[in-house]
Amino acid sequence: MEHSGGIQASLSGRYATALFELARDSAQLDTVGASLAAVKQALAESADLKALTISPMISRADSGKAITAVAGALKLDPVTTSFLGVLAENRRLATLAQIIRDFQTLAARHRGETTAEVVTAHPLDDGQMAALKARLKSMVGSEVSVDASVNPAILGGLIVKMGSRQIDGSIRTKLNALATAMKG
Fold it and tell me: Is the pLDDT of residue 83 over 70?
């Protein structure tokens, strides 16, 4: 299976592709996708979990035990739990966030969707997310899967990345452009 966009060229992409193909072939794409979404949320909310994934000081065995405990606490499916164990054993947990992003991209392509990474200053409510998806769908002509994140540093507005296209409507960028224009 060919995956454009260079996903397979990266380490995280190779792991994501392996997990995607395993989930697809065992008809568990939605289950694994939901488990990875839970892991992504846990990584965003827990400094301890993030430290576990990036610390080179934690041994393979301790990392494996800890990730198994986390998988149990999050009630992850067996495929995802086993995959996280492999990442811990191979000392690749530091790439987990990128693996999740790559998996989501592959799953979206499989469903015929385009993936958009959206950065906002504040979390979007359901109505705002639906309006954004509708607008992006009208721009690209296909369903759009949104990978949303929050970065208060952009002050307001949003930044949308779809493939090689980026739409930067952040207040920070507009203020920087205004400051540059005023320098003359």
Answer: yes
Q: Domain extents for the chain?
A: 7-107, 113-183
- State pTM to two decimals: 0.75
Q: Are 38 and 76 in contact (CB under 8 A)?
A: yes
CATH number of 7-107: 1.10.520.20
- Cβ atoms of 173 and 151 closer than 8 Å: no
Residues 49-78, mean pLDDT to the nearest whole number: 93
